[in-house]
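User: Sequence in, structure out. Go.
Assistant: Echoing your sequence, followed by the structure tokens.
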Amino acid sequence: MLRPEVAGSYQELSEDVERVSGNPAEERGGEMGVHEDAGSVILPDSELGTSAPSLRFSKTCLKNVFSVILLFIYLLLMAVAVFLVYQTISDFREKLKHPVMSVSYKEVSLYDAPGIAFYPGKARLLSCKHHYYDHIPPLINPGQQGKIECTTQRINYTDPFTNQTMKYALVVQGPRDVKKKELVFLQFHLNETDQDFSAIDYLLFSSFQEFINSPEKAEFMKDCESSYSSWKFSGGFRTWVKMSLVKTKEEDGSETVEFKQETSVVNYIDQRTKPRSDQLFFVVFEWKDPFIQTVQDIITANPWNMIALLCGIFLALFKAADFAKLSVKWMIKIRKRHLKRRSQAMNHIS
């Protein structure tokens, strides 16, 4: 009874051993099947991995090239800004050295009556009258003493250039009303002369009232003769003098006055019956126009404009430098990211 049971158990044990010995081949086959399945899944990923990095590499390359171009553009702009700073400072210094002359005109209806200083010598004043609207009536008894209806002042003083010679001057008040074309007509007479040419010198200065109010009239006339130019008018003619006033402002704030003149000369036809050897002098003084010309040197360089321009240029420089710095950082970051992705792709492939 025991032998058949042992034989049965032995048979079962042998079947189990055979089943166990057959399982490793099946397990190896299953493992190979698993590896084959895994390999079939990995292969598409590897193919996608090789195409995607190439696409990312091309985009990154384009971005780097574009960034380099922008960097060079901003470097060029920085160079232009530096040149503009240098040019602005140079122009400002040049304008400070060479101021520009500015001319302005001021319209007036009444001038301050100028002073007319005559140096007649041996000549004698016969008549002096104020007329208006460029109208001078015909002469009555030329060569004879007439009315003197002008404000005059006689003065003697020493010559400012030699300080030895005494000079005699007849100072007459000039015209004032330019709107009514006021003029002063004077007639001089010279009885005899030993010179080949006869003429009378005259001098214009800015204010007759200042001369009247001056306590030292001799010194006043010496200063005027030193500061102003003198002119002449000839005998046997009517000399018409049209005056214009020019004021010049100096750098120290002082102001100088200068007269400009336009003269026209008309021959005098002597209609006196008896032939004479004397000379008659006729002169007319009138304002040319109602405009006072003011001349001054101005500096066209405005420091505030230069400061504003320099601030704008320096701001552009700082912005350009900041952009260049950020561009370089961004390029370095993109390069590092590209290298990292490339190493990851290589590791994945290996």
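User: And one key feature?
Assistant: The first strand starts at residue 100 and ends at 107.
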